[in-house]
């Protein structure tokens, strides 16, 4: 009997049924707040990584700076943004994007640097132009390491998105605020379960993408 | 033809890798660059396809300055094989071989046909074309490297220790196959190695470099072995220079002597007389068709009867006209008779080769 009462307290299915639209909306918001920063982050990280490979002296300062960004407490960064962008989506997206840079720059550089020297030399000697060599030879070979970076960045961002609830965004994080302020465990359970599920699905999804895009590694085992 | 005209390469820091090199690689020949590490042989090779730019001088291929076209365009017309092979791990063997055709925009059918043809030429089984490089053996990967370099049938090939990464048995087989292939395709090939034996085997001509990129001698293997230009070259050729020379000379170059020959029907006393006449303590026994049966020591040729009563001991090694004099020398030192027996292609006795004849040939 006790267990049943506890179960009712943790997850009220009636509430979930009545609020499906809200839950769905917050889930979509969470996905958008994850996808946009990771995509933007990669858009910035990629040229930065290429620059760091072209001019190796840039790499250490670049890692230092993006590493510094990564250490700023997220709550503080969101609050810092408010004077400039108010309680808008931008206030959430800019810091979330900055947080992805360290991992995405580092993994892109490491991935490209790990392309074997003899492969690069052969490509050059076959007559590849530098750009074509980058996209046809080096990037495909760096893909596993780059995708590993995207997986970490995505999962990290999914967690960080919940914090943006304090500035009126938050996706599934909204349910944490509701759950706490109203002492309503069901909201907490829904938020927690869905955000964890989202992280796991995103991670496995990217792993699947990697396996599809790197057929030569599948037969290695 | 590849022409080096006053080519110099100094690296930042002042190290001179190649020093005022004038050299011509003749059309359709294999020229081997050989020398100790730091002699600039690889640097020189890599200047031909502009992987390294010379500090000074001019390189031309078939009369055209290599600086006249863009580096990628130049490289697509030059086959390139390196020791590490550098196959693309993310592409199948077929796609690897098709690299340059694709860069040149060949259509699919033409590329597929060519890949198939090249797989046959270098001796790759069809079923490997769909595999990835890591699924092949070292020897197979090396063949793929050669096929990829030959893909658009370039007149010029650069090969940097192409067989250096495989074990000696596979290396020797790949070398032999490559020489047979070269007989057909007649490419102009610049080949780099640090192994003088490989240089002698592969090269129509050999360029020997010393540290600092100085060309010490450039000639045919035969001439270099016969007359090393200086102490550096003769040191580099090593203590077995005479043997290496013998390996390049066919046994047909030396006149075979008739030798003390008897047939089985000969009486023992006349066989003994034959040995005495030639001053040997053995005789060669032939059958009625002129085939070699073996040899018999002269001290056994006593008493009545014929040679057929005795059992001749076989020669373990027989030499044919296209074997090398090194093989002949080997036959001499393992036989009690101290000579090499030369036979025709249909195994008939032609005569014996003596050490005196060998020494005469090396004079």
Summarize the main sheet of chain B.
Answer: 6 strands, mixed
Can you tell me the CATH architecture of chain A? Orthogonal Bundle
Helix content of chain A: over 70%
- Helix and strand content put the structural class of chain A at mainly alpha
Strand neighbour order, sheet with most strands of chain B: 6-7-8-3-9-10
Q: Remind me, CATH topology of the largest domain in chain B?
A: Rossmann fold
Low-confidence stretches of chain A: none
CATH class of the largest domain in chain B: Alpha Beta
| Strand residue percentage of chain A | under 5%
CATH fold label of chain A: MetI-like fold
Tell me how many strands of chain A there are: 0
Mean pLDDT of chain A: 91
CATH superfamily of the largest domain in chain B: P-loop containing nucleotide triphosphate hydrolases
Q: Based on the structure, what is the oligomeric state of the protein chains?
A: heterodimer
| Spans of at least 5 consecutive residues with low confidence of chain B | none
Primary descriptors:
heterodimer; A: 221 residues; mainly alpha; MetI-like fold; 11 helices; 84% helix; elongated; B: 363 residues; alpha/beta; Rossmann fold; CBS-domain; 2 domains; six-stranded mixed sheet; four-stranded antiparallel sheet; 15 strands; 35% helix
